[in-house]
Design goal:
about 250 residues, mainly alpha, cell membrane
Length: about 250
């Protein structure tokens, strides 16, 4: 199955790579959150003694980002099945079951996830100190103390494992559902509603960023969590739209 998936992935790599940005973003988000969780462990005893625990600030985006990725995979798989429907129909005629086709798609998504995870981890390695400094200026050093952020192979391995696991499991689950119910045709009203929701969330995100205090203050991080939550919602709503636009321009 892995060899067959690799051959099909290599043959259709231009189409798959249009979705690479989604997995790079997911890899960066996972690596950023894991870096914060791992590197703050050395300062955690002092933070807990002061009744400050910044771990939820990094756990919430990690959880929401994982859920968002699984949701976005449904739209990605629908696009792939629609684009290569003749090829997959031929597989079905030759005797492939929905379960086997779902494994084929999930393995290709896992391959793409591994590439996105590595690139996202490398980007996070260089961008985490700057991003952490910006968060520290917003939230305050009582919640986010100054700590070093050396490159971590542990974070890289965890990022790679989590994203590959989410990609394969989410891809298999969504592909199996679509193939079993033949739900390749999307609802015609959903794209319009999705764009309206994205605009509203983007306006809300801008308003929340505007309301954030310009000077360091001691806050519980609720505003930051809301900003992260809106970011992953925008990722979910606009991810498939960007992929469709790329396919239109390419083909």
């Amino acid at each position: 199955m892995l060899t067959l998936s690799w051959q099909q992935f290599r043959r259709n790599w231009t189409t798959w790579c249009l979705a690479l940005g989604l997995f790079i973003l997911a890899g960066w988000l996972i690596a950023f959150c894991l870096t914060g969780i791992v590197d703050l462990q050395q300062a955690l005893p002092q933070l807990l003694a002061a009744h400050h625990d910044p771990t939820p600030l990094f756990m919430m985006p990690l959880v929401f980002g994982g859920i968002t990725l699984v949701l976005v995979l449904k739209g990605l798989i629908q696009i792939i099945l629609t684009k290569f429907q003749n090829e997959y129909r031929l597989w079905a005629v030759l005797g492939a079951t929905p379960n086997q086709l779902a494994q084929l798609l999930a393995t290709q998504i896992a391959l793409l996830s591994s590439i996105g995870a590595l690139i996202g981890w490398l980007l996070a390695t260089f961008s985490v100190p700057f991003c952490y400094l910006q968060l520290q200026q917003i939230i305050g050093s009582n919640w986010l103390p100054s700590v070093p952020f050396p490159p971590s192979l542990i974070v890289g391995g965890l990022t790679l494992g989590l994203l590959i696991g989410l990609g394969w499991l989410g891809g298999y689950w969504q592909a199996r559902r679509i193939l079993q119910h033949q739900a390749i045709r999307p609802n015609k009203w959903w794209p319009i509603l999705r764009q309206l929701l994205a605009v509203l969330i983007l306006l809300n995100l801008g308003w929340q960023l505007y309301r954030l205090p310009p000077q360091p203050v001691d806050v519980a991080g609720s505003s930051l969590i809301q900003v992260f939550f809106n970011l992953v919602l925008i990722q979910a709503l606009l991810g498939t739209t960007a992929l469709k636009l790329g396919l239109t321009l390419l083909y």
